[in-house]
């Protein structure tokens, strides 16, 4: 996989069906622009955190649900060209005027995959993560992530992706750096784990948390785990 555009947004729970229709209506256009896979997942097991969490990342209201979404591109050049078309294509402009969510609070950015354990099987559930990592610790983080990915795959996950922040803009209301309270010298990692089902995820995640390959001490991880954002999501579109 060459490049990822990652999104997190808040959608009123009452607008779920409208959001699915809205996203599906964009799919042919995004594929025309070069997207090879478009995924939308609906918040299902999204815990409140002490320092950071997905709800805080997009300033979600009590009646809103967090959506974790991504586009996969063959390379960054295709993604960059697609974004130019998205901003200028009149079909996009018309559709953006009817978005069933507050676009001002949506966070988005471009990420370069540094690990992808692509396997077989459809995605029935996803865990999503946002992680602040010191730029100087990129290689150390990759080594840690590779061990964690091995544990996830051994306990039932279909795929693990780790993508390093590459084009991460500052937002007026929300952004990725604010989501994880990133400090100077830190990058944001956008990561997800694909599972065959929610049941497989619940069983597998419990085993992962007990696996000795996973560091459970915050001081033993190459990032501040207290600021990591995570949650479980149900796919609502995978095209």
Notes on the protein architecture:
The chain has 239 residues and is α+β, with helices and mostly antiparallel strands. It is built from 7 helices and 8 strands, in the order βαβαβααββαβαβαβ. It has helices at residues 16-33, 54-57, 76-88, 90-96, 138-154, 176-179, 198-210, and strands at 3-12, 37-45, 64-73, 107-116, 125-134, 159-167, 186-195, 229-238. An 8-stranded antiparallel beta barrel has the order 1-3-2-8-5-7-6-4, surrounded by 4 helices. The radius of gyration is 17 Å and the shape is globular. The two termini are 15 Å apart.
Topology:
Elements: E1 3-12, H1 16-33, E2 37-45, H2 54-57, E3 64-73, H3 76-88, H4 90-96, E4 107-116, E5 125-134, H5 138-154, E6 159-167, H6 176-179, E7 186-195, H7 198-210, E8 229-238
Antiparallel strand pairs: 1-3, 1-4, 2-3, 2-8, 4-6, 5-7, 5-8, 6-7
């Amino acid at each position: 996989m060459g490049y990822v555009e990652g999104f997190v947004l808040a959608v009123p729970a009452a607008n779920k069906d409208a959001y699915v229709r809205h996203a599906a209506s964009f799919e042919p256009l995004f594929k025309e622009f070069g997207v090879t896979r478009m995924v939308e997942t609906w918040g299902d097991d999204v815990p409140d955190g002490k320092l950071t969490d997905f709800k805080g990342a997009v300033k979600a209201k009590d009646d809103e649900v967090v959506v974790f979404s991504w586009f996969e591109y063959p390379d960054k050049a295709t993604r960059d060209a697609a974004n130019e078309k998205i901003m200028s294509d009149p079909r996009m402009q018309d559709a953006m005027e009817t978005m069933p969510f507050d676009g001002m609070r949506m966070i988005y950015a471009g990420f370069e995959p540094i690990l992808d354990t692509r396997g077989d099987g459809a995605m029935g559930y996803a865990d999503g993560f946002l992680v602040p990592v010191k730029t100087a610790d990129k290689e150390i983080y990759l080594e840690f992530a590779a061990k964690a990915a091995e544990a996830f795959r051994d306990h039932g996950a279909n795929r693990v992706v780790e993508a390093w922040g590459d084009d991460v803009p500052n937002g007026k209301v929300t952004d990725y750096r604010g989501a994880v309270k990133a400090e100077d010298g830190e990058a944001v990692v956008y990561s997800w784990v694909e599972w065959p089902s929610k049941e497989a995820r619940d069983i597998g995640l419990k085993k992962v948390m007990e696996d000795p390959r996973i560091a459970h001490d915050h001081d033993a991880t190459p990032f501040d785990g207290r600021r990591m954002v995570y949650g479980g999501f149900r796919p609502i579109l995978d095209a």
